[in-house]
Each structure stands twice: as C-alpha cells, then as structure tokens.
Sequence to fold (293 residues):
Amino acid sequence: MEEKVLLKTNIQDAKFIRSGKVRDLYEIDDFLLIVATDRVSAFDVVLPNGIPEKGKILTQISLFWFNQFRDLVENHVVTANVDEYPSVLRKYRDVLENRSMLVKKAKPLPVECIVRGYISGSGWKEYEKKGSICGIKLPSGLVLSQKLPEPIFTPSTKAEEGHDINITFRETVEILGEETANTVRELSLAIYKRASEFAEKKGIIIADTKMEFGFYDGKLILIDELLTPDSSRFWSMRDYCPGKPQESYDKQIVRDYLVSINWDKKPPAPVLPYEIVQKTAERYKEIFKILTS
Fold:
C-alpha cells in the first residue's frame, strides 16, 4: 500500500501567499509560515504524485544546518515547535508537525547564492563552452564531477518560471551593491567550506549548494532552505569517480526515469511508478540519517 503523502495544504486560519514547487507559504501575525509538502518536481514541472516524508526531511535537514551556522549568520527561523505557534495554528498540528517553520518576514535578495566545489550540472555545461563559470576562468582539462582547486561563488538570478540564469560577480554587484554582494559571497563560501568539512567526516561530498539571503530589520540573514537534497548535490565519497555523472542523494532517480520514458518535459507530467517513488524516498531518508545521525 502506498504511503500517505501531503501534496497540498489548507491552513484556513492563516493568509495564503503562494505555493512553490515544494513549499506552501502563509502569513500570520508578523510572521510567515512555511510548510514543506511532499511534492516533487523535475525539469521545472511538478509531478502528480509525491515522495513520502520528503517535506519533513527537507525541513529537519534545514533546521539542523541553520542551527550549525548560528554563530556565523542569523537565520529566519523563529520556531519550528508547533506548541509555540500562534494558538489558531495548533489544530493543524497533524499537517504542520516536523514539516513547517514559523519565520521572520525577510525581504529576499533577487540573487541565488550558489557555491560549487566540484564541476557538475549547468556549471559543467558552461565550462565546456567557455572554459569558465559565471565569468570565473577555470583550469583547462577539467573533467565532469572533478573537484575544483578552490570552491567558487557562482550566483544566479531567480526566474519566476524555468531555469535560473547564471550571472557574473560584477553583475551581482550591480544588482545588490558592492557591500551586500561581497558579504553574501564571503558568507556563502564560509558556509559551504564548513558544511563540506562536516559532511566529509560522514563520508559525503557536497558538490555544490544553493542558499538564499534576505534583509530583516536592516540586517542580512539566511532564509529559505539550507543544504538540503533539493538545494545541494550530495555524493558518496566511497563511490566518487570523476569523469562521469555521480549518483546523488536526491530525486535523480525520478529524473532518470522520466528521461527513460522519453517524456517531453511539458505538463502534464506522468505519474511515477510505485518503485520509483519508494527508491527516491529511501535516498532522502538515507542522506538525512547520514548527515544528522
């Protein structure tokens, strides 16, 4: 029997703001309520069935990392304890428990902060064409999945629909201003380096990751999600082999299946078979256990 999944929320005692590919966002009092559903997307299309427990795992991993970096930068989390939520929300405990966060109403920066320690994904495609990523010249002769000499900051602009667009640091300065651009670059690299050292002790490579920042009361803080399987590439150090694609602890199983059936990557998306859903769920659970012990 297929496990129960949460695909949509209906929190009637809070003001609905919007739904993303995974998260539903509400406003209540002076806070935002973020609820991570079990929805899964591929090629920018949300699929009809979800991955059991995915939203809970994403939320708990984010909370774990936010806590790890409190000494480096403030984050948007007010509480993830339903008992501390406004009283009108507590009747939704079954939905909110372990998969939601009450957060500060920060103003997000219009730039995604991406750090790459290994060359993969869109970075590899850009390197093949230009020998650089986001204007950063890289050594010639690198192969797919190879470790870079040093982690690099490769920002992108947020796209309302479709893929985000990689930009240079100079363009980042034009968008954010020099001081903010420099600060988010330094913080992003510091977070990545510390997280990578932590993960390597657990046998995990963080190939790259995406993080977001915003302003709250004039202060730059960390927002959204942090170092989850949906925002990062996690590889096994034991199985790592440069020169080819690596198996990731994420929804790669879903993408591979959709490619295998020659789906045209346009809505409506096909329903995922039970075994693909279960295998993907196991990958999410595995990385959660490895990282958080």
